[in-house]
Amino acid sequence: MELEQLRNDMVAAMKARDKDRKDAISSLVSAVKKAAIDGGCRDNVPSELVDRVILKELKTVKEQLDACPEARADLLAEYQRRYDVIAEYAPKLMSADEIKAYIEEHFAEVAAEKNKGKIMKAVMGELKGKADGGIISEVVAEICK
């Protein structure tokens, strides 16, 4: 995903007077800009950074949804709408089978040692932003059995 695409979609949401969508996309744009400044790439923001920020924001909203009390239906609805909008922009993550195949193909010698810490260290750098860390951990635990 490119930052420019997010900006264009935010403008389209403003023109359509879709406040919920505009707010969600606006928060993504702000988070991406902040991450770009922190990363020292203010002018030329790489799409990998945008994807990483989108996944982080998606996780944050998911945590808000999970932590919100059932009695607060208004907040639950707001968080759900925001989650749905952000999920549209989230990159497709690898499945457990794809992760296992990737590890067996690219990290066969490390996986042969059956050391979970070494495998996780090697794999997380490669798959960060491409796969969910929890699923990677489960796959690595399965390999180490």
Main sheet makeup:
none
Using the CA coordinates, give the radius of gyration. Answer: 18 Å
Low-confidence stretches: none
Mean pLDDT: 88
How would you portray this structure in words?
The protein has helices at 3-15, 19-39, 47-67, 73-89, 96-106, 108-112, 116-127, 133-144. It contains 8 helices and no strands. 77% of the residues lie in helices and 0% in strands. The chain is globular, with a radius of gyration of 18 Å. The longest helix has 21 residues, at 19-39. With 145 residues, it is mostly helical.
Briefly summarize what is shown.
The protein has 8 helices and no strands. It is mostly helical and 145 residues long.
Secondary structure elements and their pairing?
Elements (H helix, E strand, L loop, with lengths): L2 H13 L3 H21 L7 H21 L5 H17 L6 H11 L1 H5 L3 H12 L5 H12 L1
Helix pairs in contact: 1-2, 2-3, 2-4, 3-4, 5-8, 7-8
Considering the chains and any ligands shown, give keywords for the structure.
single chain, 145 residues, mainly alpha, 8 helices, globular
